[in-house]
Specification:
Layout: E1 3-7, E2 14-15, H1 17-27, H2 39-49, E3 52-53, H3 66-72, H4 77-85, E4 91-95, E5 99-103, H5 111-118, H6 125-133, H7 135-148, H8 171-181, E6 186-191, E7 194-198, H9 206-209, H10 216-231, E8 233-235, H11 236-242, H12 247-259, E9 263-268, E10 275-278, E11 283-288, E12 290-292, H13 303-310, E13 331-336, E14 339-349, E15 354-362, H14 368-386, E16 390-396, H15 398-404
Parallel strand pairs: 2-9, 15-16
Antiparallel strand pairs: 1-11, 3-5, 4-5, 6-7, 8-10, 9-10, 12-13, 13-14, 14-15
Length: about 400
C-alpha cells in the first residue's frame, strides 16, 4: 500500500532535494494501492505519465507491464493488452520516448515527427535510405499490408532475408519501419514481441485520425507541459528527453511555458542546471510506498536525473557486457518511501513457478536488515501478481542473505 500526504509547494524559488524528490514521486502517480485497478484507473495513470515504454527483454515480465503495477498494484495484464489491441483502442504504438504505448488522443501531437521522418529527419539511416533508393518497393509493401494486414515483417512476400544479427534487418523490415515512423502504418498489436503492421484507419479511431495535426510549436509546447506534469520538477534536459524533442525548439517552448506561468524557474539543492516547477506540482510531507521499479519506468529512465534526485547510479545491466555487470542481469530498483534503497536482480522461473532473487544489494547508507521485511512483502506481492507460487532468494548479496533470515 502507498500513501502520499500532499501540500502545495511554498512560494520560494528554492527547493530542497528532499522536496524535489517527493514532488517527483507524487507527479509520477505513486498513490494508494488498496483496490483492484479499473480500466479507468489504468488510463488515468497512463495519461498522467504520458506513455509506457516498450522493450523486448522478458526476464521478469515485459517491461511496459510493470509501471502500472508499481503505481496501482495488481491489475489484469489482459486489460492493458486490450487497451492497445482491441477496438475501440485507447492506446497506440509510436515513438514517444522510445517505442511506446501512448493514449490515442495524443496522436495529433506526434504528426510533426511523422512529417520529419518523411524527409529523413530523426529516424534511423537504413529505413530512410531504403525509402529514397527504392520508393517502388516501399509502395509495394504498403499495398501488400493494405491487402493482407495485420502481418509481421517476416510475412511479407518479397521482404528478403535478414543478415542474421540483431540489427541485420531485411529490406521488408526496413520498409515497414519507415512506414511506421512516417505514420503510414501503425501497430495492430504484438505477437509475442513481434510488431504486427496495419493501416491506421483499421486500428486508430476515426475521430482521432480526423483530428487536425497539432502545429509543430503547439505540439512541442503541449508535450513539454505533459513532461513537466509527469516530472513535477525538472531541468530543460529532463523535459526534452521525456518525448525526445529537438534542442532549440525545446528552449523556445520552455520560455513560452514560463511566460504563461505554467512553469516556474526554481533552484533545486545540489543541481547545477536551471530547473522548472510545474504550476500544479504538489510537495509531499511524507511518502509511504514500496515498489519495484521497471528499468524502463519514467521515474528513472533519465539516468542523470535519477542520480540527481535519488543519489542512485543506475545503468541497464542487460545491455552491458557480462564482464562489466556488478549486480546482476535484470536489476530492478526498490523504492521505499521517497528513496531508492536497493537494487534486486529478478527472474521469473516460470517452469518451476518461482520468482528468483538472483542478487540483492542495499545502497551503501542502508542496513540490509532494515529493509528486508518490506522488500520480502513486495516480492511476495509481485510473485502473486505474476502467477508464481513462491519467492526463491538464491543468489548473492547481503540483501539476499537478509531475505533468507526472515
Amino acid at each position: 500500500m502507498a500513501r502520499i500526504n500532499r501540500t502545495t509547494p511554498a512560494g520560494t524559488d528554492t527547493l530542497s532535494i528532499d522536496e524535489a524528490r517527493r514532488i517527483a514521486i507524487a507527479a509520477q502517480g505513486f498513490t494508494t494501492r488498496d483496490a483492484e485497478p479499473t480500466r479507468a484507473d489504468m488510463l488515468r495513470t497512463i495519461r498522467r505519465i504520458g506513455l509506457l515504454q516498450l522493450d523486448s527483454v522478458n526476464v521478469l515480465v515485459r517491461s511496459h507491464y510493470l509501471p502500472l503495477y508499481s503505481r496501482l498494484g495488481p491489475y489484469a495484464v489482459e486489460a492493458l493488452d486490450a487497451l492497445s489491441h482491441k477496438r475501440p483502442r485507447a492506446l497506440f504504438e509510436y515513438w514517444g520516448h522510445e517505442a511506446s504505448l501512448i493514449p490515442v488522443e495524443y496522436h495529433p501531437l506526434f504528426r510533426w515527427r511523422m512529417d520529419d521522418a518523411r524527409s529523413g529527419k530523426g529516424m534511423w539511416a537504413g529505413p530512410s535510405r531504403l525509402a529514397r533508393e527504392r520508393p517502388d518497393f516501399i509502395k509495394a509493401v504498403m499495398n501488400e499490408i493494405a491487402e493482407r494486414g495485420p502481418i509481421g515483417a517476416g510475412e511479407l512476400s518479397g521482404g528478403g532475408k535478414s543478415t542474421g544479427n540483431w540489427w541485420g534487418w531485411s529490406d521488408g523490415k526496413r520498409a515497414v519501419e519507415y512506414l511506421f515512423w512516417t505514420g503510414e502504418l501503425t501497430s495492430a498489436g504484438r505477437r509475442g514481441f513481434e510488431r504486427l503492421y496495419d493501416l491506421p484507419e483499421r486500428t486508430i479511431p476515426e475521430r482521432i485520425l480526423n483530428t487536425a495535426a497539432a502545429p509543430r510549436d503547439d505540439a512541442h509546447r503541449t508535450l513539454l507541459e505533459m513532461a513537466a506534469t509527469a516530472f513535477g520538477v525538472a531541468t530543460e534536459a529532463d523535459l526534452r528527453d521525456y518525448f525526445r524533442l529537438p534542442v532549440a525548439e525545446t528552449k523556445a517552448r520552455i520560455a513560452d511555458l514560463v511566460d504563461a506561468k505554467i512553469l516556474r524557474p526554481v533552484t533545486v539543492e545540489g543541481w547545477k542546471q536551471q530547473s522548472y516547477l510545474h504550476k500544479n506540482a504538489k510537495a509531499a510531507r511524507a511518502v509511504e510506498t514500496s515498489a519495484l521499479i521497471s528499468p524502463f519506468d519514467s521515474l528513472i529512465w533519465m539516468r542523470p536525473r535519477t542520480e540527481r534526485l535519488f543519489d542512485f547510479h543506475y545503468r541497464l545491466a542487460f545491455y552491458t557486457p557480462k564482464h562489466k555487470r556488478t549486480q546482476g542481469y535484470y536489476v530492478t530498483p526498490f523504492l521505499l518511501g521517497d528513496k531508492l534503497v536497493a537494487r534486486v536482480d529478478l527472474k521469473s522461473d516460470r517452469k518451476n513457478n518461482r520468482l528468483l532473487v538472483l542478487g540483492g544489494h542495499a545502497e551503501s547508507h542502508i542496513a540490509p536488515a532494515s529493509i528486508a521485511p518490506q522488500l520480502k512483502a513486495e516480492l511476495q506481492r509481485l510473485a502473486q501478481w505474476l502467477g508464481l507460487k513462491r519467492v526463491a532468494p538464491r543468489g548473492r548479496g547481503e540483501l539476499v542473505r537478509a531475505l533468507r533470515k526472515i
